[in-house]
Amino acid sequence: MVVETDLEARIASLESSLKTLEENEAKRANSLSILVFSGTFDRLMASFTIALGAAAMGVQVTMFFAFWGVGALRTRRGFSGKSPCEQAISAMLPACASQANPSRWSFAGLGRRMFRFLLRRRNMPQLEEMISLARESGVRFICCETSTAMLGIRDYELMSGVPSGGVATFLEAAYGGQVTLVM
To answer: N or C: which end of the chain has fewer CB within 10 A?
Structure first.
């Protein structure tokens, strides 16, 4: 019968659509997006603590590093091929995550050294160890291409293997996830 075949096809189509919706919802319920736009020690520590905790729970984590947060992805300071303004910015930014100062109590680097000492004393991982653990745990890093262009940060200054993307890349992760944090 034509009516039964048409009805069976419609039911199969609805079941397929329902399965797709359920799969998408399961992915959405199990993902976290973090916009990291601060490069201070305390905010980076909080960002990576949350990312590592979520990853340990089996959550898919995407970290989008923008503006000052890009500093967490730097591995060295470079000056070659930069304008004087870009060289000045490069000189003022921390060369790598281990040189990030806290947002308060910096005291020309003394605060950073104090917090690093306290972490070691309590057998807690340093910021650079947390970054490495996050990468090993499958946390997805994305570097904001607009921020790197504006700050004059070149690819050779950044961790290898970290893709760059624009706001659409972050929004895709954020819209596809259940939780989005701004740090």
So the answer is: N
Give the chain's mean pLDDT: 89
Measured distance CA(97)–CA(178) in Å, rounded: 28
Distance, in Å, from the CA atom of 97 to the CA atom of 69, rounded to the nearest integer, reads 10
Residue 54 structure tokens: 């979520």
**28: alpha, beta or left? (left if phi > 0; alpha if psi -120 to 50):** alpha
Q: In what order do the strands lie in the sheet with 31-36?
A: 164-165, 140-144, 60-65, 31-36, 179-182
Which residues, at least 6 apart from 8, have a Cβ–Cβ distance to it below 8 Å?
A: none
Question: What is the average pLDDT across 133-149?
Answer: 96
Q: If we measure between CA atoms, which residue out of 163, 167, 182, 158 comes closest to residue 71?
A: 158
Q: How confident is residue 35, by pLDDT bands cut at 50, 70 and 90?
A: very high
Distances 167 to 36, 80, 161, 170 between C-alpha atoms, Å? 13, 28, 19, 5
Please write the tens of the pLDDT for every residue from 154-163. 999 999 999 9
Q: How confident is the model at residue 18 (pLDDT cuts 50, 70, 90)?
A: confident
